[in-house]
Structure formats: structure tokens, C-alpha cells
Amino acid sequence: MKLSIRIICALLFVHLCFAAPNSNRYDDEDSRENSIDAVEQGKQVHQFDLLIFTQRWPITACYEWRETGKEHICGLPTPATVWTIHGIWPTKLNTIGPAFCNKSAIFDVSQLSPIEPQLEAHWVNVEKNKPDDSLWEHEWLKHGTCAAEAIEQLNTEAKYFGQGLSWLEQHSVSAAFATNGDIKPGFNYSLPTLNKALYDYYGKNVAIECFFDRKTHQQFLNEVRICFDKQLQSADCDGIVGLERIALPNSRVGTVISNCNAAKPIFYPDAVPKKQEEEEEKEVLQLDRDVVYETVYEISDGKTEIEVILV
């Protein structure tokens, strides 16, 4: 009897030791992407509540990319002053993710052939150090595979990217700014002003994202995120991690979903700012001119004519 018990215990120990590492094939990955996974009837199910349709201002995106690496170069659409698509992101409220839901998925750019010209114009990869279709591949594998699990209208590459193009046509930030507030590139705006224009146009709470330049301490309008439910109907963007509701003092709208500093102006650029090195070179050249001018002025009294040659 004692021998049988020992054998059973030994077998149980071996089972636990060898079964545990394979209990979840996502254990070694980023917990932020897998914290909302569930197993249903032996199948991996990635739950989410909203689809975040993200439009970005390509000038700011280009500037941000360039500033994050000395070798980074960027390209802009033609014309540059149009809002483009970043992605459609399934999101669980108050959680990051899900992401990369189909680990065996591949990206096949040939499936996008009928709409590729439109994607090149409106779903633009500003990171020119990377292949032209790298943004599309990233968005499909990271976000599209999650949307495809739950929403029939987004369950192929063609449907996912086609929906993005359709939403851009129907819900363009450019149209929102032109219709409400006449907000144009090249100027600074307050966060309440931007939020009012967007809310009046969409009738929902959207999210406004800024890029902060650590060198100049300036904040740039970067992205606007519009939310939809699983039936592809517009919804409020509450519960997005990283873009929380912040108070707007002295505004009829008490709060706004944003990461921007409400106390400072937000620049809506009409061109990519010059590189810091170029500005520094200009300052040096200007300083040299000032020195020459001062020297010539001192020499003009005739007391130090020999220095004219040295200058």
C-alpha cells in the first residue's frame, strides 16, 4: 500500500513538473498584451471592448521619428498637410492590448493590391528607413489579427485596411477642424479649442494625443483617436490607457481625454521643424557676422587699420 502511494505521488510530481511550462504558450511574452486573454473551449480568445481608429498628423509623426534617431529619415504624403491613418486598434477598457492575437499569421501584401494606391496615399509609412509596407504589416499582425477574431467585417487584410480607408473618408480630422473652429496648420491652439471642435463634429468624446519635444519643450498635435464598438458604431473613448481624462479649467467641457498639457499651447505644425543642428549652425554663423560687424565698426575710426586685413 505504501509503495503504491509513493508511485502515485512520484507520477503526479513528474506530471506537474513537465506540464507547467506548457500550460500557456504566451507566458514568456509581454504581460500587457496577454493579461486579458481567456480560454474558451480550448481556443485562445482575446477579449476587447473598443476599436480605436487612430489618425495622425504626418508632419508631427515625421518629426517624432526623425528626433528619435540620428539616422532616421522620413517621408511625407503629397500634400503633406493631410491627416493619415495609423491603425485600427482593438482595446480592452483600462488595459493595453490585446495584440498579436494570431501567432501563426503572416502578412500578404498581394491581398491589398486593389486598394494599394489608396493605402500609399492615406495609410502612410513616414519611417523611410523601413520598407514601404512595414507599417501595414505591423498593424495587421499586431492589431488586425485581434480584430479578425471577433468582427466579420475585419476578418481579412482587405477588409481591415478597407475599413480604415472608409472611416478616414467619413470621419477625417481635417473635415472636423475645417467645419468646427476653422483650425488650420501653422498655429497654436488650446486643448479646449481642439476638443470642442472635435466633439462638436463627432458627437463623441475622442482622444487627443500630443508629442512633447524635450529639446524645445514644445508640444505638437500628433494623433486623434476615434472609437467604435464591435458593431462599428461610434463610441466614447473613455478607458484608454495613457490617455486619461484631465480637467479643463475655465471650460464648459469639464474634462478631455488626452495626454497633452492643458496649461500650454499645442502647436499644429504646417512643416517639419528644422533640425536642432541646423539651428545651432545658423546661430554660430550669425554670431560670426556680429563679430565681424563689430570689428569693422571699431576699425572705422582709423586707429587700427592693420586689423582690417586680419578680419
From TrEMBL:
One of its GO terms (biological process) is RNA catabolic process. The keyword Plastid does not apply. The active site is at residues 86, 139, 143. Keywords: Disulfide bond, Endonuclease, Endoplasmic reticulum, Glycoprotein, Hydrolase, Lyase, Lysosome, Nuclease, Secreted, Signal. Its main location: endoplasmic reticulum. GO terms for molecular function: hydrolase activity; ribonuclease T2 activity; RNA binding. It comes from the Eukaryota. It catalyses: an adenylyl-uridine-RNA = a 3'-end 2',3'-cyclophospho-AMP-RNA + a 5'-end dephospho-uridine-RNA; a guanylyl-uridine-RNA = a 3'-end 2',3'-cyclophospho-GMP-RNA + a 5'-end dephospho-uridine-RNA. Pfam families: Ribonuclease_T2. Residues 1-19 form the signal peptide. GO terms for cellular component: endoplasmic reticulum lumen; extracellular region; lysosome. It is found in: Endoplasmic reticulum lumen; Lysosome; Secreted. CDD domains: RNase_T2_euk. Belongs to the RNase T2 family. PANTHER family: RIBONUCLEASE T2. This is Uncharacterized protein. It comes from Anopheles coluzzii. The lineage of its organism: Eukaryota, Metazoa, Ecdysozoa, Arthropoda, Hexapoda.
